[in-house]
Amino acid sequence: MAIETFSWPTHRGEAPDITYRVRESRFGGGYRQVAGDGPNNKEDSYPITVTGTKAQVRKIMEFFDRHGGAKAFLWSTPLGDLGLFTCADPKPTPVGGGRFKVSATFKRAFHP
């Protein structure tokens, strides 16, 4: 089965959370040695919001249900970098007038 792409337009006003996993050893005299923790040591996640009609939000939630928080999908970051992501926390919320918003956090995933 092909990898699906999350293609709905998102509101990207919030800042991403980006950290680098490192291993560090400290020695006498203030000397320290630092190395990246593995080949994929960058951990990044992006808070997103999508608004739409009830029917549109149902399709988005069906997309998240198919992936179940564990199966990765393709998505482009605000800087335009295409990557694999997972989403384990979608929150559909009614905003009135038959419109809904979905708030979620996309976390970077890697192929094994």
UniProtKB/TrEMBL annotation:
One Pfam assignment: Phage_min_tail
InterPro entries: Phage_lambda_TipM
The protein, known as: Phage minor tail
